[in-house]
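pls read this protein.

:::
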Amino acid sequence: MTHHKRQSATGIILAGGKGSRINKNKALIPLPDGKTLIQRCLDALNKVFPEILIVTNQKELYRDYDARVVEDLIKQTGPLGGILTGLCHSTSYFNFVTGCDMPFPQIRLIELLLDKCRDRDVAIPEIGGEVEPLFAVYSKNCLPVIFDHLHKRDFKIRRVLKKLKVEKIGVKEIDAVDPEHLSFLNVNTEKDLKKAQALLAQISKSA
């Protein structure tokens, strides 16, 4: 199945610092196929977006990756600051944002979010009443609200969403394109890493 690149959207990967629970830089953890978590993420996004940004505080670590690497504009502001940085540097109105520790983003789910965002500020998956802010599409219209929250030192993405036009994608729609919810597997602990390794072995076998 061929995917056409979206000329009108940008992919943004947030590569924060160390994973406190796993005690190493999560983005650069290799999986059994030799690819790092962030490389797997990049490979998927490359099929959809002509422009990809990596937002980080350690630019030198990502020199070898095929993406534009940009540094956090406002330090120590967590994922919300990363989203602001990505939106400021992006050349697109619509932007898909994900974390560097989510190695199995499903392209069909990304495309569904992009389709749903047309007249909204944000399109975001919601499972069991919980939204997934690091697997969502944000428009540049979010910038003033995000900036205002950062200025007030309020870094809760969910509070930002309350002030924007948000399209929530429910579990039924998610299941149609990502039945196993692979997109949301993020590697925070050694246990998560083992799960990702096992999953990759399974994918390789069936490929």
In short: Helices lie at 37-46, 78-89, 107-116, 143-151, 157-161, 171-177, 190-206. The chain has a mean pLDDT of 91. The first strand starts at residue 9 and ends at 15. The first helix runs from residue 37 to 46.
